[in-house]
Design a protein that fits this description.
This protein has helices at about 10-20, 25-35, 45-50, 55-70, 70-85, 90-100, 105-125, 130-145, 150-165, 170-185, 190-210, 215-230, 230-250, 255-270, 275-290, 295-310, 315-330. The protein is an all-alpha fold. It holds the Pfam family TPR_10.
């Protein structure tokens, strides 16, 4: 938590990259940290103290910070504390659901999102932006469990409602465009997904700028749609562009940056450069173990991808051991 004063602490890189790119937020965050936390205190003790706090503003500020850092575990702890303080708050219930989903517990997240969606419909109405936010979040939880047709229907519903309520160029509407395109890609409709992602990327560049995390997400997703059509060289160029931008904007160990390393490795693998792909997968695996934990679905997927790269180099026993680890943990 006080990593901006401790270069050897594991969070230092997160803070450094975050503070370097957002000076207004930097000033507010540093002030918040310095007034709320004793820099000479034991980190673990201060974390325990913070998670017992009744200061909702402090907890919300820290949640914002760790969300931008990509620390989903600490985000969940903060959200659970907020929910303990006000279990009737739909805002806190939604935050908790998103934090749970960020750690790969999609069934649990779906249950919370359904509860929040029904409550928001009753309290706010079906067309309220917060209600639409719950539809979007529910669709993502469903999508992450492989129920793509159901997710597509929810994303389409949310997209049309957001267009009407917010306009076509609103960031939330563009998020729905992006999520719908991903669901289309998940169902094997790669040409259609590519077209949707190109439209979304152009709109996000205009609305948010080229370095915004949402714009970078669209570059990543376009690369995946291109890659799914066998154009691995083109996909590699897009993934490298996205990776460098994410390193600069988010830091080298942020989950989104690690996702770009994983996707670049797959594009390299698709061109038969298995040794290079193995190196990238090992880098990604180490980062995901530290950032997400050893049992997160993304970490397990990386083990599976690493096994494939090892197998293609003729090291079958090593590949089989990695596959065994993957199957036992899945």
């Amino acid at each position: 938590i006080v990593a901006h004063k401790e270069e050897n602490h594991k969070y230092y890189e997160y803070f450094r990259s975050f503070f370097a790119g957002n000076f207004g937020a930097c000033e507010a965050r540093i002030h918040m940290l310095e007034t709320c936390i004793d820099p000479d205190a034991d980190l673990q003790q201060m974390l325990v103290k913070m998670l017992a706090s009744k200061d909702e503003k402090l907890l919300l500020d820290m949640r914002t910070l760790v969300t931008e850092m990509g620390d989903y575990y600490l985000k969940e702890l903060l959200c659970r504390r907020l929910f303990e303080l006000d279990s009737d708050s739909l805002k806190y219930r939604n935050m908790l659901a998103c934090a749970v989903g960020g750690q790969g517990r999609y069934g649990e997240a779906e249950k919370l999102h359904r509860q929040c969606l029904e409550a928001r419909k009753n309290a706010l109405g079906e067309a309220h932006p917060n209600t639409l936010g719950s539809i979007n979040s529910l669709a993502l939880a469903v999508q992450n469990q492989g129920r793509y047709e159901e997710a597509e229907e929810l994303h389409q519903e949310c997209l049309e409602a957001r267009k009407n309520a917010l306009g076509e160029a609103h960031p939330y509407t563009l998020a729905s465009n992006n999520n719908l395109a991903n669901t289309v890609r998940n169902q094997g409709r790669y040409g259609e997904a590519e077209k949707l992602h190109r439209q979304c990327l152009g709109a996000r560049k205009n609305a948010l700028g080229e370095a915004h995390p949402d714009t970078l997400a669209s570059i990543n997703n376009l690369a995946l749609a291109v890659q799914n059509q066998g154009r691995n060289g083109e996909a590699e160029d897009l993934h490298r562009q996205c990776l460098e931008a994410r390193k600069n904007a988010l830091g080298e160990t942020h989950p989104d940056t690690l996702a770009s390393i994983n996707n670049l490795a797959l594009a390299v693998y698709g061109q038969g450069r298995y040794e290079e792909a193995e190196e990238l997968h090992r880098q990604c695996l180490e980062g995901r173990k530290n950032a997400l934990g050893e049992t997160h679905p993304y970490t397990l997927r990386t083990i599976h991808n690493l096994a494939n790269a090892v197998r293609e180099q003729g090291r079958h026993e090593e590949a089989e051991e990695l596959r065994r680890q993957y199957l036992e943990a899945s």
